[in-house]
Q: What sequence folds into this?
């Protein structure tokens, strides 16, 4: 009988003795995104009219303004040559004596031509 009671006691204690305890760890992390500064650049286009005195394709165009002062413009990488109607024309039409309008933006000391409008007769 002693044996039965001891066996019964062991049977009752065994599940408690071998039971696994579980530990739950919760970790909370907060990340912040770095803020980026937004810079807004405003460019202003200016138009000048006159007669071409010198033209070097892909480089510069010098235009004598109506006041008589020659002004040199650097031709931008994406310069467009158009007529008054806005249609693309060949830059071969531009030669000394051609009346043009130059739409340009100023960058430092340079005036960079973005569009050259050929005033055809």
A:
């Amino acid at each position: 009988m002693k044996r039965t009671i001891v066996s019964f006691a062991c049977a009752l204690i065994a599940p408690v003795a071998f039971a696994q305890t579980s530990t739950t760890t919760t970790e909370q992390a907060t990340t912040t995104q770095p803020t980026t500064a937004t810079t807004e650049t405003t460019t202003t286009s200016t138009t000048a009219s006159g007669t071409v005195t010198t033209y070097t394709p892909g480089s510069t165009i010098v235009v004598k303004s109506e006041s008589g002062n020659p002004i040199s413009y650097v031709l931008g990488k994406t310069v467009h040559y158009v007529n008054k109607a806005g249609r693309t024309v060949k830059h071969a039409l531009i030669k000394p004596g051609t009346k043009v309008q130059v739409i340009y933006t100023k960058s430092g000391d340079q005036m960079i031509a973005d569009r050259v409008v050929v005033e055809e007769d």
About this structure: The first strand starts at residue 45 and ends at 56. The helical segments are 2-17. Strands lie at 45-56, 60-65, 70-83, 99-107, 110-118. Confidence is low (pLDDT under 50) at residues 20-24.
